[in-house]
């Protein structure tokens, strides 16, 4: 449970600190709790819009009636996010809906066929089609950064995030000052920023990146981006390195995974750091690009039989880099103004 949620037996309320939040006050989701097929709840149409944005409902002209189609969408969502599959708006599901997440649609992708694997690719399985080892450049937008972050800290964070991926695949990433020609273009944007996927203010959607070989990598400038939680005490602080690592996965061609521990899982709670690639992430990206010859699965530090952190003790963190393929679509706006 993240710090923004307080769940009581018969109500689900999002609590946010007024000093941290500019546009999101608090949303009362209690009216939806345990709603199931046949329910008619005011505001349900906005929840349906949320499911539409992330790929679970095909059309967008919604009523407040909990119909069969919405039940199917909910079941699919619960399955995709590894929640208990109840077909109802239970507390686990509402908590997931409230949780901050990536803007990339959960459905713009193929799911791996192997029952034991949970990574996914975008339609057409796009990748950076260059001779191996692939060399990609990245640059920060000269005009779209956030002033409270130290530029050298940001550069260090992205260097580490790219290195995690280049440690496992034969792709190397090099920062360049030439933004116009860079393969991967990184910037912080507010609201509608021209790509059809507007950001939504504090929390909700945190960022999005496009599939290969697009290279656009966008972060929501409205977030309280954190370099270090020891010095950043905001209740809604979002770890920049965690989101950067996730979005690089999209740049390379990975879509969302259903393994909660995986970097490619779509949501990330505030004040949470999740930067170590798991087996699911590694297997997915290696199926696109092959393995970095210096990488050994044996170097994965065991956590359990299915989810293991990747040790980044690769000898060549800068030599090999990754291919990032980014993905497309993103969606967003968790600004469900349901608390009217
Ligand atoms: Zn994502
Ligand atoms: Zn964008």
Any chance you could write out the topology, listing elements then pairs?
Layout: E1 5-8, E2 11-14, H1 44-53, H2 68-80, H3 91-98, E3 109-111, E4 120-122, E5 134-140, H4 151-166, E6 171-175, E7 184-189, E8 207-209, E9 216-220, E10 224-226, E11 237-239, H5 240-251, H6 279-289
Parallel strand pairs: 5-6, 5-7, 7-9, 10-11
Antiparallel strand pairs: 1-2, 3-4, 8-9
The protein binds zinc ion (ZN) (2 copies).
Binding site for Ca(2+) 1: 223
Cofactor: Ca(2+); Zn(2+)
Binding site for Zn(2+) 1: 193, 195, 208, 218
For the largest sheet, list the strands in their spatial order. 6-5-7-9-8
Shape: globular
SSE order, as H and E? EEHHHEEEHEEEEEEHH
Q: How can the largest sheet be summarized?
A: 5 strands, mixed
Percentage of residues in strands: 5-15%
Name the structural class. Answer: alpha/beta
Alpha carbon gyration radius: 19 Å
N/C terminus separation:
25 Å
- pLDDT averaged residue by residue: 81
Q: Helical stretch count?
A: 6
CATH C-level class of the largest domain is: Alpha Beta
Q: What small ligands are held by the chains?
A: zinc ion
In the CATH hierarchy, the architecture of the largest domain is 3-Layer(aba) Sandwich
Q: Outline the low-pLDDT stretches.
A: 1-26, 302-340
CATH homologous superfamily of the largest domain? Collagenase (Catalytic Domain)
CATH fold node name of the largest domain: Collagenase (Catalytic Domain)
Instruction: Name the helicity range.
Output: 10-25%
In total, the number of strands is 11
Count of the domains? 2
